[in-house]
Amino acid sequence: MKNIKFLILMLFSLSMVVSCIDDDNDELTGGASTGGLITLNNAAIGYVVGNGATYTASGSVYQGNTKTVNIDIYKSFTSSATGNSTDEILYDSVTITDTELGTNAPFSTSFTYEDLIEGLTLDGSPLPTSDSELNIGDFWTLRYEATLSTGEVFASAAITKVSVGTRFAGLYRCLEAEYYRIGVLTYTTSDWPSETTIESVDATTYRVVEYFGAFNGNEWYFQIDENDKITYPDETPSGDAQTGNGQPLITCESSPADMSNVPCGAETNIVVRDEVNGEDLLYMSFGYYTSGSGSREFYQVMEKIVE
Question: Is residue 244 classed exposed, middle or buried when 0-12, 13-18 and 19+ CB atoms within 10 A define those classes?
């Protein structure tokens, strides 16, 4: 009898475990409230002083079992000189009309300089009416909140940074690339990232974010002069030596013997402007040298991405 009671107890306990597992699975699949997952097309936008352009921030929201019906977009401004920021205010509210399950419903918002500054106050004063009074490195932040059909509101971790810069700041795609490791072609165009972010530091200096050719985890600088010639400073703006992958930077000028596998003539380290579509091209040759091993040489043609 005791064995029978014990068996019955074990079967009952097992049924409860299975029931709990089924309930948990239901929460993770068909029965769960999902929605508000925002993906941005452009997390970084370069605002070019004086060009009077209209810019667009866009993205999509995944439509799960619970639908996203609205995206609220908030804006704020941060001064590069002081680090102070304005209060955040609502800029735009976008109704989502595509509610089909499993789709990525698109949304977008457009803005000019006048739109960006409207209603924002920094340190007790409105933002300047002329963008010529801004500083390189100032930026706006666009933040997104998704409203679901249930009335729930979810703040997205994704933001769009609209950085004040010069013409050649922005996102770039790689059109052509070569990487030589000790004279051996090792990586080509397909190994480069789909997007590389370039930010303005001052009127002539640019910071490359994250990627040194095909390698991530890098931050480095180049300059463009009035003749659209690209050069590479020996030091960063903070006074540190320029490096690539943690090794000393080399260029066609500083180490021509170590840059024999990539172009180093008049056809590289130049800018080719696109005055029609704004898809400017950067032709760049650079590298680094590893002591006891040898040179790493890079050649890349980068095209500015214009939304």
Answer: buried
pLDDT classification of 15: cutoffs 50, 70, 90: very low
User: Contact at 8 Å (CB) between 58 and 30?
Assistant: no
**Minimum mean pLDDT range among 48-52, 161-165, 242-246:** 48-52
- Return d(Cα 86, Cα 89) in angstroms, integer: 9
Degrees, nearest 5: CA angle 290-172-55? 150
Tokens 């680090």 correspond to 83
User: pLDDT for 61-82, tens place per residue?
Assistant: 999 999 999 999 999 999 999 9
3-state secondary structure of 65: coil
Task: State which amino acid sits at residue 307.
Answer: E
Task: Compute CA 194 distance to the chain's CA centroid, rounded to the nearest angstrom.
Answer: 11
Chain-wide mean pLDDT for the chain? 89
Beta-carbon count within 10 A of 141 CB: 16
Full 3-state SS string of 288-306: EEECCCEEEEEEEEEEECC
Q: Is the pTM of this model over 0.85?
A: no
Percent of the chain at pLDDT > 70 equals: 88
Distances (CA, A) of 183 to 186, 286, 300: 9, 14, 16
* SS3 letters across 256-290: HHHCCCCCCCCCCCEEECCCCCCCCEEEEEEEEEE
Question: Among the residues of the chain, which ranges form H helices?
Answer: 2-28, 113-117
Separation of alpha carbons 193 and 191, rounded Å: 7
